[in-house]
Design brief:
five-stranded mixed beta sheet
Length: about 190
């Protein structure tokens, strides 16, 4: 099962970082992407990358990527790799850190956190590729998403972005939001 495998990957990362961290030093890993969905719902979906929000200047995060990033021995051994993602790439809603949910485990150094359901869904609206639509359908079908919550999360994600004319990705995300809300409220059968 993918969620157990991802947790084993985190345990190996945690053990390795324990050799490099100063006493009491921790690393918060804010997950996004499919790995967050897998850990949230215990789903058996395919992924190889474990997307984390990039934290500028974090020596521990740099070390984590050096040890478990794409093409490293750690990634080869465990079948997953860490991939740092800018918080502006799939726009992340403001305040996502305070709404994130701890991934339980016997962590020494790392503190993996998965996003709140609306925040996770909002990160998938701009790109809206086939996998994103599958993930959004799963999130809609959990019954945890609400149209208002999703709209607020997307508004927050684009709070400081250029307007729709200057940023075509923003316009696309809001168009996709309408599609997802239509599915959520039963006006569409598919995403």
């Amino acid at each position: 099962m993918q969620s157990d495998e991802i947790l084993d990957f985190f345990k190996a990362l945690d053990e390795e970082l324990a050799h490099h961290a100063k006493e009491g030093e921790t690393l918060e890993l804010y997950l996004i992407g499919r790995s967050a969905l897998i850990l949230s719902y215990g789903l058996d979906l395919m992924t190889k990358d474990v997307d984390i929000i990039y934290v500028h200047g974090s020596k521990l995060q740099d070390k984590a990527e050096e040890l478990f990033g794409k093409g490293t021995e750690g990634a080869e051994k465990w079948g997953f790799y860490l991939e740092r993602v800018s918080s502006g790439l799939p726009p992340i809603p403001i305040g996502y850190q305070s709404r994130s949910i701890d991934v339980p485990g016997p962590w020494k150094v790392i503190r993996p956190k998965r996003p709140e359901v609306h925040d996770l869904a909002a990160t998938k609206l701009k790109r809206f590729h086939a996998k994103d639509r599958v993930d959004l359908r799963i999130l809609c079908d959990t019954g945890e998403l609400s149209a208002d919550g999703l709209r607020q999360a997307l508004d927050s994600a684009f709070a400081f972005a250029a307007d729709e004319e200057e940023d075509p990705g923003r316009k696309k995300a809001y168009k996709n939001l309408t599609t997802v809300i239509d599915y959520l409220e039963g006006r569409r059968r598919e995403l």
